[in-house]
Amino acid sequence: MLLWMRGRRAPIPTDSLVFTATRGTLAMPMMFGAATVIEMVVLHLLIPWLWLSIAVAVLSIASLVAVASSLALDRVHPHVLSADALTLRVSGTVVATLDRATIVSARIHRRRGVVSPTLDGSRLVLPNQDGTTVDIELSTATAVVVPALLKRRQVSGTARSFGLQVDDATALVVALTRSSPGAARRSRTVAVDKTTTASTVAPNPAQMGEV
After folding, report:
1. pLDDT tens column, 168-195
2. Cβ-count burial of 9 within 10 angstroms (0-12 exposed, 13-18 middle, 19+ buried)?
């Protein structure tokens, strides 16, 4: 939370890109915070025992700190795209690492309805209150683990399809589709093919006669 308060993120490699998923995540915490502050004031006026009033205030402040810490985790530890992989995080914890060589498609697709991490068959959804904005498909399944306070609520398994919420969906899709290792190899192959074709063009006999 201290990094967030200072406007900083956890260190990442210099050649990597970060993609946050913070849009739409402040409304509910702000409402909860306002309600908690009002509750603290009302209870302080109503509770006649000082010790109980202090205890309630401490619990209320602790709940506010917990909510703020949860918000800070997503902002300080966002998704990270490196030259080789896309690392997906939830609440600061890595839930999946997608090898860029296995990414076959990435597109903007806004979906609403699901607001918590869900593994449906081979599809992992990592939304926020606004749903998801990007769909990613892999050629092979990869392991996924979404931790939870209660182990029985932990989401784990394998997935080949992913639905993500990111603030800049266009930038992520462009980075995945234009700068992937596979796309770079295809570009190099095309360049070589063009060079080879140009070097094997036969001379025009008519032009040779004119010379």
Report:
1. 899 999 999 875 454 444 332 222 333 3
2. middle
Query: How long is the chain?
Result: 211
Picking from 29, 19, 12, 104, the residue whose alpha carbon sits closest to that of residue 63 is 29
Cβ proximity of 135 and 172 under 8 Å: no
Cα separations in angstroms, 117 against 76, 124, 146, 163, 201: 19, 7, 7, 10, 57
The predicted pLDDT at position 123 comes to 93
99-126 burial by CB neighbour count: b if 16+ within 10 A, else e?
Answer: ebeebeebeeeeeeeeeebebeeeebbb
DSSP secondary-structure letter at 131?
B
How many other CB atoms sit within 10 Å of the CB of residue 203? 7
What is the C-alpha to C-alpha distance for residues 109 and 92, in angstroms, rounded to an integer? Answer: 24
Q: What is the mean pLDDT of residues 79-85?
A: 89
pLDDT at 13: 63
